[in-house]
Amino acid sequence: MSGLVVFGSVNVDATSYVDAFPAPGETIHSTGYRVALGGKGANQAIAAHLCGADVALVARVGDDPAAEVAREAFARFGLATGAVTAVPGTPTGVAQITVAGSGENAIVVTPGANAAFGAETVAAERECVAAAAVVLTQGELPVPTIEALARACDEAGTRFVLNLAPPVEVRPEAVALADPLVVNAHEARALGLGSDLSADASVAAWRDAAASVVGTLARSVVVTLGARGAVAADAGGAWSVAAPEVEAIDTTGAGDAATGALAAMLAEGRSLPDAVRVAVAAGAIAVQARGTVDSYAARAEILTLADRLEFR
């Protein structure tokens, strides 16, 4: 069985590159366009695989041509997809993405086959969950499925990593089992974490906010802060990791690169602060190229950069 099992979404990303986002009602021309694999589950599984983790992806695609785009990408990266199943009569999930010249992005997701990923899938994969060191999932799956997976991991004694992106309304008792809960600043505020912090709050303030909810909101917490790095806290302490200074070309999927790397490091037994260091390095590399999975680096490059980063 795999050390890391990712229960997650699979999308095909249709990305338009523009100089600046259009105003409401405005029509503009793009400077470029690409179609590629996406979906937080797929992205994070590939990021973890590139980091050297033994990864299994449990996911759903449609029976349309877009599914072949996804399967071809999985094959190109060498990702195990024995548990990626097609849902008859259903389209594969799609993400419509606009990336501005600043590197910022705006995304609209149509779930497609991801919405058919029911809690019964978790029951069918209980042996896989029990055999894994870490199970990872995201907010792009149906809420009952996320909650069922949290319970299955708790019953099996398997570490449950929850990237609650987008911040859907998962019941608090399920979120409380996350170890860690991984969110960005926007998602954290949606959960009530850091809701009293200003937009320019210091990294130290975010670190203290994360520490204040350990054992209540979740077993441990990681908050990613973009170009400022990330903070993390568990029962043993709280840390921050500053990101290296890089030129951001495209931030799409950088959070997934970080989360996948984080889960990979936890699956091989690294400590939370050390795993966050690697996650920050993976995200920093990913923003320097266009696209999602095609911007992800291999293990050696990520670890070389991570060795230069310090947690405080």
TL;DR of this structure?
This protein is α/β, with parallel strands linked by helices.
What's the arrangement of secondary structure elements?
Blueprint: E1 4-7, E2 11-17, E3 32-38, H1 40-50, E4 55-61, H2 65-77, E5 80-86, E6 93-99, E7 105-110, H3 119-124, H4 126-131, E8 134-138, H5 143-156, E9 159-163, H6 172-175, E10 181-184, H7 185-190, H8 203-212, E11 221-224, E12 230-234, E13 237-241, H9 254-267, H10 272-286, H11 299-306
Parallel strand pairs: 1-4, 1-8, 2-6, 4-5, 8-9, 9-10, 10-11
Antiparallel strand pairs: 2-3, 6-7, 11-12, 12-13
Helix pairs in contact: 1-9, 9-10, 10-11
Q: In which order are the strands of the major sheet placed?
A: 5-4-1-8-9-10-11-12-13
Number of strands: 13
The DSSP helix count reads: 11
Largest sheet: 9 strands, mixed
Flag low-confidence runs: none
Structural class call reads alpha/beta
CATH architecture: 3-Layer(aba) Sandwich
Rg is 18 Å
- The level of helicity is 25-40%
CATH superfamily: Ribokinase
List keywords for this structure.
alpha/beta, 312 residues, 9-stranded mixed sheet, 4-stranded mixed sheet, UDP-N-acetylmuramoyl-L-alanine:D-glutamate ligase
Descriptive notes:
The chain has helices at 40-50, 65-77, 119-124, 126-131, 143-156, 172-175, 185-190, 203-212, 254-267, 272-286, 299-306; strands at residues 4-7, 11-17, 32-38, 55-61, 80-86, 93-99, 105-110, 134-138, 159-163, 181-184, 221-224, 230-234, 237-241. The chain has a single domain, classed as 3-Layer(aba) Sandwich (UDP-N-acetylmuramoyl-L-alanine:D-glutamate ligase). The longest helix is centred in the C-terminal third of the chain and has 15 residues, at 272-286. The two termini are 35 Å apart. It is α/β, with parallel strands linked by helices and 312 residues long. The strands form 2 sheets. Strands 5-4-1-8-9-10-11-12-13 form a 9-stranded mixed β-sheet, sandwiched between helices. Helix 5 (143-156) links the parallel strand 8 and strand 9.
